[in-house]
Amino acid sequence: MDANIIKNHYPSHKSFRLKGWDYSSPGAYFVTICTHKKQCIFGAVDDGAMQPNRSGELVRECWEALPTHYAGINNQIFIVMPNHVHGIIMLADENRRSGSKPDPTDSFSLSEVIRGFKSYSSRAVNEARHSPGTTVWQRNYYEQIIRTEREYLKIGEYIVYNAAKWDKDSENPFLLNISRL
Q1: CA-only gyration radius of the chain, Å
Q2: Could you please report the per-residue DSSP string of 66-84?
Q3: CA–CA separation, 49 vs 8, rounded Å?
Q4: DSSP structural state of residue 137
Q5: Of the candidates 34, 92, 27, which has an alpha carbon nearest to the alpha carbon of residue 59?
Q6: 164, CA 20 to 30 Å: which among 9, 10, 102, 114?
Q7: What CATH number does the domain containing 102 carry?
Q8: Half-sphere exposure of 73 (CA within 13 A, CB side)
Q9: What span, in angstroms and rounded, lies between the C-alpha atoms of 77 and 26?
């Protein structure tokens, strides 16, 4: 098949990944994961505070449980928003598989942690909604390597205060609808 036909037939997704970077190497990574079609299924922001519904609580629980599946990660900075999540995942010097993974000597990558999170949380949300197989998350996610302590603090502050800025957030679909009027 001609390369131009392939390019035009399948939409390309711009990769934000740093070429040559090993995403299983120790470090801090800022991640944003959006819901399928950016649907607001995790709750609502009221008066600058996120009010998660049952699905939002399940997503938070799945995020908090990640270290039981992936030993050596730190994922304490996190927020569930109505249609996305933000978090910082820190991979330790010797990240190792644990929990349901068969070989505890193999290290894992950031993408494997995100895949696991999406899988665990989708299953939990769909069980609660009685909607097995329903797509919860968008296909990809955004990640950024955090290189300095200053960057870490700035991103951490962004995450912590994200709900307070929801009325100006580019992920807020209600803001997009108001601006179109």
Answers
A1: 17
A2: HHHHEEEEE---EEE-SSE
A3: 42
A4: B
A5: 34
A6: 114
A7: 3.30.70.1290
A8: 30
A9: 17
63 contact partners, CB below 8 Å, separation of at least 6: 75, 78, 80, 85, 87, 117, 121
Residue 86 in domain: yes
The answer to whether residues 108 and 25 touch, using CB atoms and an 8 Å cutoff, is no
Q: Whole domain around residue 128: which residue ranges?
A: 14-161
Q: Which residues contact 7 (CB under 8 A, 6 or more apart)?
A: none
Contacts of 44 (CB under 8 A, 6+ apart): 50, 51, 53, 82
Rounded to an integer, what distance in angstroms lies between the CA atom of residue 181 and that of residue 178?
A: 5
Distances (CA, A) of 43 to 51, 54, 152, 178: 6, 8, 27, 20
Is 58 a domain residue? yes
